[in-house]
Amino acid sequence: MLSTAALLANTPPQLLPARELMAFTLASHILLVPFGVALPLITLLMHHRALRRDDAVALQLARRWSAVMAVQFAIGVVTGTVLSFELGLLWPGMMGRWGDVFGLGFGIEAWAFFLEAVLIAIYLYGWRRLKPWTHFWLAVPLPLTALMGAFGIIAANSWMNTPQGFRLDAQGNPVDVNVRQAIFTPMFGPEYWHFVVAMFMTAGYVVAGVYAVGWLRGRRDRYHRLGFTLPFTVAAILTPVQFMLGDSAARAVFHKQPVKFAAMEIVWKTDTHVPEYLFGRLNTDGTISGGLKIPQLDSILAGFKPSTQVTGLTSVPAADRPTAVQATIAHWAFDIMVTVGSLLILLALWYAWSWLRHRDLPRSRWFFRCAAIAGVACLVTVECGWITTEVGRQPWIVYNQMRVSEAVTDTRAGSLWAMLGIIMAVYVAVFGAFLAVILKMRTRWRIADEGSASARAALPPESDTPYGPRSEPEPTAAGAAPGGGSDRTSSGAS
C-alpha cells in the first residue's frame, strides 16, 4: 500500500491551491443557493395568502421578500459566474474530455438562470403595474425555473458520482454518448430530491429565524407572527421528509459508491456486523480514536440486518480511496448532518404538538431561541452535505474514471494562490455589500412600521419600487394622488 506521504508526493503542486480555490468559491456560493431555489415559492405562498384573504400584512411580507430575493439573485450571479469560469480554468482535463457527456446539465442550468432573471424582473415590475392576480400568475413559473436550475447542477454532479451514458474508444475517450442515461444516473434521483428538500428546509428556517429573533426582542405583532409561521411551517413539514430522503440517499451511496460509503462511516475492512461510530477519527492503520461506538448499527442501517456486509476502505488500493484524513472529514460532515437533522425533527414535533393542542405557537422562549438558530444550523448542514459528496469521492473527480490530479490545470501554484487571495477579497466585499443592502432595507422597513412621521421624512426620497416604503404623496385638491392613479396591488404594502 502507498503511504499518505507517497500519495502526496505524486500529486502536482498546483492541485492544492486549485482545490482550495474551488472549495472556497463553492462554499461561499452555496450559502445563497437555498434562497435562490426556495425563496420564490415561499414568497408566492405568502402572496397567494394575501390575495385570497385580502391580507395587507401578508402582501407586505411578500413584497419585501421579493426585494430580498432580487438582491440575493444579483449576488448569486457574481458567485455563480465565478464558479462557471473556474470549472474550465481549474479543471480543463475534466471539461475537455468529459464535457460532451455531462455538459448538458450546465446548459440546462444556464437556461434556467436566464429565465429566472426575466421572471424576477417581471415580478418586481408588476407590483404597482399589473392587476393583482395577473401579477401573481405571471410569477408562478418562477419557482419552476429555480427547480430547473437545481436539476441541471445535480444532473452534472450526480454524473460525476456515477458516470454512465458513454463508452470508451481505444484511446480512452468517451464516444456514443446517450444523453438520457448521462442525465438520469443512478444517483440523480436520491441526490436531487435530497438537495431540493434541503434547500426548502434551509430557506424556511432561515426566514423564520429572522422573525423569531424579532419575537424574542418583543416585536410580537401580527407581522412577525405571520412572517414566522408560514416559512417555519413549510420547513417543519419537510423536516421528517428530508430525514427519510437522507436515509435513502445514504443507502444509494452504499450500493452505488461503496468506497465513499466506507469513508462516510470510517469502515476500514469489509465485514458484517459493522459498528456505527458517531464522530471519531480514522487513523492510518485503520484504528479509530474517540467517538461513540454502537455495535452492529452500521450494518443494520445499510441493509436492515446485522449480517449485512459493508465494504471497507481497504477493498481498493490506497491510491484509489480517500486518505484517513479525508475519510474523517467526510465522516464528521455526514454525522453533523444527521445530528442537526435529528434535532430539527424534535423542533418540528414541538411545533406540531403545540399547534395541535392549542392552535397556537409554542409560548416558550426556548422554542424561539431554537427556531432562531435553526436556519444557521441548516446552512451548516448544506455545507456538510457538499463536503460529504465531494471529499468522500476522492481521489476521483469522475468516479473510477478520472482522478482530480489528472484534471487539474497546469497553471503555476503561485498564480493560483494569488487568485485565491483576490477572490477572497472580492467575496468579502460582495457579501459585505449584500449585508449592507439588506440592513438598509430592514432599517427603512422598520421606520415605516414603527417610526414617526418626522423620522420617515428624514429619509431620502425613494422611488415607487418594492425595495422599501415611500412617503405618502400629498393629496391633490381633488383628493387623489398625482396622476390620478390608484394602488391596486399593495394595500398597506409600502
Say what oligomer this is: single chain
Mean of residue pLDDT? 85
Any idea how many domains? Answer: 2
How much helix is in the residues?
A: 55-70%
Report strand order across the widest sheet: 1-2
* Class inferred from helices and paired strands: mainly alpha
Mass-distribution shape: globular
Q: How many strand units?
A: 8
**Main sheet makeup:** 2 strands, antiparallel
- Contiguous runs where pLDDT drops below 50 for at least 5 residues: 1-7, 461-494
Tally of helical segments: 18
SSE string: HHHHHHHHEEHHHHEEEEHHHEEHHH
Radius of gyration: 25 Å
Strand content: under 5%
Structure characteristics:
two-stranded antiparallel ribbon, disordered N terminus, heme binding, single chain, two-stranded antiparallel sheet, iron, transmembrane, 2 domains, electron transport, 18 helices
Brief overview:
Helix content is 67%, strand content 4%. It has 494 residues and is mainly alpha-helical.
Task: Summarize the structure in words.
This protein is mainly α and 494 residues long. It has two domains: 12-187 and 426-447, no CATH class; 197-256 and 258-392, no CATH class. The protein has helices spanning 4-9, 15-29, 33-53, 56-90, 92-102, 104-125, 132-139, 141-161, 179-183, 188-216, 222-256, 258-264, 297-303, 324-358, 365-391, 404-407, 413-450, 453-458; strands at 167-168, 174-175, 276-278, 281-282, 288-289, 292-294, 396-398, 402-403. The longest helix has 38 residues, at 413-450. Residues 1-7 and 461-494 have low confidence and may be disordered. Residues 451-494 are annotated as: Disordered.
